[in-house]
Task: structure prediction
Amino acid sequence: MTRRIARYLSLAALPAFAFGAAAQDAPTFYQDALPVFQKNCVACHQPDGPSVGGIYAPMSLMDYEAAKLWAPLIRNALETGYMPPWGAHERHRGEFKGERYIDKAEKDLLIAWVDGGALEGDSAKAANAEGLVASSVGTTLPESGWWIGDPDLVVAFDEPVYVPDEVEDWQPTVQMHYEEGAHQEPQWISMAELRPGGPWVHHIVSSHMGVGVPGRGPFTYPEGWGVLLAEDPFITVNMHYHKDPVAGSAVYDDTQAAFKFYEEGDVIDHVVETNLLPHRNWTIPAGADNYEVNNTFEIEEDIYLLSMGPHMHYRGKAMRYELEYPDGEMETLLWVPNYDFNWQFLYEYEEPRLIPAGSTLHMSWWFNNSETNRYNPDPTADVVYGPATTDEMANARIYYAPVKQRGIVVGRDLPQDVLETARATEQRRREQTELIDPSSDDFSWLTEDEAR
Result:
């Protein structure tokens, strides 16, 4: 493979007319491009590929005809760095689970394949195509229809939520229910998966299942890490719908979610906590192309940092997490130089990071509110923190747990503090959450909001 890549790199430097004479030496799909696609792309780009936070790959790169048709766009996506999507700087290679870096030699080979005419080659020479796909984690949807496998509990709306024509941006909170008798005792969550009803689902913030945003798949905790789902849970999701408010755009949303629980006898050492770490009270001036916002968060006890999830909207440009240790030493934990609202990843460490008490987390966000940002809804308007897609946010969610191991054995008596915390959280949700009635057809609030 290395020799072939070297040869194709030299071919990539040739002018286009040279490929007529060198066609016999150009890379082919089956022998050269397909193995690279399988290594880097087919986790999403496959027949009936996965929904990644509501995003579906538009074609299968396991199919020659589809790959050839999309070849010019594949070249552009590789050259611009749009694909494979990841966001985290190259300096972080090897730090986070599920990273999506592509080696330069592999990228150049694919570009050479496109420039060489996107030749098919001999399918009989495909380099163990089936084996490569089978060895890729999460590339084949299980028979259950859920990427986490056979769920222990599935929750859903009582009936689909109606999103009428008039809605452009709407954020209702809806309760999800489970079959009677399906969940009677507290359970420790090991995996959770959100299944958006369609592309109009902008994001989902759930009470127990993590956050569903474009580009983010199932939520899986490391072994021994978990969240307690108390008995009789008030499982809610804050849905954020966004679409064009035109005639015929109305939809019914049937978003669902699923859990897998730890089994009896498993040990929970770390009870996961989360903090959104939002920063508000700023205004991005109209036309500003590199507006910076900064915030800090004090670490009061020794913790293990599990993951980080930057969040901005359409004007988001870049985001950085830095850690200042108690002795003043600084370290960059995460640098996302090209933030993309359409791919909001949760960056989970391969091994949770120890953060000592007395450290300070420094967070920086950059925004492009100018006309050079093609996604900017209105470069002539000042922008403040707000919930609508056309507003902006500066959030720096983290998932973490205290360092001290709890040694909680699943199936035995729960520590009182853990159970009381889970129950208190449920009670706060019951007191603070305003639910919509999915069966209601009263949308007078649409015109009432306009009147105000």
Q: What stands out?
A: DSSP finds nine helices and 25 strands in the chain. The chain has three domains: 2-134, 153-269+407-451, 274-402.
